[in-house]
Amino acid sequence: MARTIELKVDPITRIAGHLGVRAVIDVDTRRPIPETVRSFITMFRGVEVFSVGRPPEDMPHVTSRLCGVCGSAHANGSIIAVDMAYGVTPLEFGVVLRNLAHAMTDHIYDHPHILNLLEGPDFSENIVSKLTPSVWEEAKKTRAEHRDIHGMTTIADIMRELNPVTGKMWQLAVLFQRIAREAGVLIYGRHSHPSTLIPGGISTDLTDAQSLLIAYTYRLTKLTAWAKFNYLVWEDLLRFYEDIGYALNGATYEKPNVMSAGLFDDAEAYSSIGDNKEWEDVYKGIDEAAEKRTIVPGLMLDGELVSTKYTDMNVSTMEHVEHSFYDEWADKVRKQEWYTETDPLGNKLLWGHQDPAYHPWNKVTIPKPMAIDWNDKYTWGAHVRIVWKDGRVRPIEVGPYARMLILSVRPNRYSSGNGVVKVTLPRACTDEVPPTVCEEMTFEWKVPRRSSTIYRLWARAFNTLVDVDAAWLNVLKALELVRNGKIQTSRPWGHPGRVTRGAGFVEVPRGTVRHWLVQKGGKVLNYQIHAATTPNVSPFDKYGRSPYEESVANAPITEETPPDEWQGLDFVRAIRSFDPCLPCAAHLEFSRNGKVVKVLEKAIKDVTSCYL
Questions:
Q1: CA distances in angstroms from 232 to 120, 126, 132, 164, 370, listed in the order given
Q2: Residue range 399-408: mean pLDDT, rounded
Q3: Which fold has domain 50-554?
Q4: Which pLDDT does position 11 carry in this prediction?
Q5: pLDDT digits (tens, 9 = 90+) for 461-504
Q6: Which residues of 102-131 are buried (b: 16+ CB within 10 A; e: fewer)?
């Protein structure tokens, strides 16, 4: 009979509440038993419930409160949904300002923050030397490829600089996240809850637009140098882990199921689809506008790129609650005047293969709290699945890896479609990092065809370079518009008296944020939110395991300690590589035969305590 031990990590917080992970591990093989893996959300926020009846224009400001870190992520998803429902999009300068602010307060700020403050400690000297000492010894002997640029001679030196508070990478991330926030606040007015997003525009004070752009560009120059430095450090560290056999620890699907909605709207394309039109017209134009986003959209199922259309991603999305703490709504919603079975293009929701009541436009949030039952309902996270035109139903992964993989298989600014992403950043210097990163630099990465812990981190580091490049593109566009005197940002808007809908999809650091809105006469009738982690954290069902649970199932224990001292390092590395919203303390329980045999309160506290 196999020796087993149950390992529960609870809580690991996410962007909209607390997350726990539980698995039974075969002690002899050091591997989780796949069917025992559960990820579970232990907190209900209720934003969807109390959104009903509110003015849609309030929703970007209400939903930004979902998170104190990535408030602008939800604000941007929400404002696109409101734009669509009201039939109005910003003027060109308004689109550019939205891009510039979102690039800073979400992406350029958050990716290095996630890598160095939240995920980095799991790869720091303090953790690696304690839990995997043989890896530490190998790191001390391995020279870093880019040591002449970043100044860290060995991989062990990089690990040392990832130590919380005392490490150079930790300290630089704190410094540069402030600079990125400053740049975003020039446009948003504040962080992390933007105050200037309005339907069909943005209300930034443009009394002196030229000075605003100078202040933004000054900070972008510093952040460009930092992005180069940060990438080269992480490339060296992750290549080391790839070389020692850690490449597929925390892997998800052998044939990728990934989605990216795209990012950074083209000013002309997005502005042109919403000149006070009917909402159906905006919806019909959104595919062409999304196709021109700097980071292009795409949907891949079973390793095949099946669509690049925004509307396909909308029609294909199903949400159900088999293992979730919610009640069924299908019979109730069909009686509502706003219930629909098709989109404005005439597509049957879920392509006619599943009940359209389970599409987010029709989904109603009805909380039903109860005790956890691992074989029944065990989480506040709902099941998010993609239903394709041929009837396939798949779980879906979102995040930087998904974004970079889609980018690599489509011809666009960053790839010829050959599986390699490539970006060139201009000359940029700042006193805080070595002058060796000043010159123009070109970076390439062949995106692996399977998501894993280290490849998700690698994608995040590379994604930062792409985001910096996109910010420069928008700076140049903004300067062009200012020179031409085109600094108007917004169109007038009103409340459509009939039922209208919106679907706002946008990429954010942790994945794809998607907001669905139904309104009538300026009042929300239904509102549904997929946070960036919602698809990743979904519970298992007959269609398979979602990314979190799949990654933990494929995360064998590498800790070089006795089983009753395992601390779940590989589990939390896998989870944090998706979503790094961490608690300042966690407790781990070890149990046999249903009885707790050991509890580690505030596990790994001495080396990874939160200092934020």
A1: 14, 22, 24, 20, 48
A2: 98
A3: Cytochrome-c3 Hydrogenase; chain B (1.10.645)
A4: 55
A5: 999 999 999 999 999 999 999 999 999 999 999 999 999 999 99
A6: bbbbbbbbbbbbbbbbbbbbbbbbbbbbbb
pLDDT tens column, 343-373: 999 999 999 999 999 999 999 988 888 898 8
Q: How far apart are CA 52 and CA 59, in angstroms?
A: 10
Q: Side chain identity at 241, as an amino acid letter?
A: Y
pLDDT attached to residue 85: 98
- Three-state SS at 496: coil
Instruction: Report CA torsion sign: 559, 563, 569, 574.
Output: positive
454 labelled as ligand-binding? no
* Overall residue count recorded for the chain in this entry: 612
Q: Do 153 and 143 meet the contact criterion of CB atoms below 8 Å apart?
A: yes
Which token pair is 116? 């160095």
**SS3 state at 188:** helix
Q: How far is CA 2 from the centre of its chain?
A: 38
The secondary structure of 520-561 as a DSSP string is: ETTEEEEEEEE-TTHHHHPPPBTTB--HHHHHHHT------S
- Whether residue 429 is annotated as binding a ligand: the answer is no
Domain ranges for the chain = 50-554
529 is in an annotated binding site: yes
Residue 48 assigned ligand-binding role: yes
Residue 584 among known ligand-binding residues: yes
587 appears as a binding residue in the annotation: yes
Known binding residue 610? Answer is no
Q: Are strands 523-530 and 511-520 parallel, antiparallel or unpaired?
A: antiparallel
pTM of the shown model: 0.93
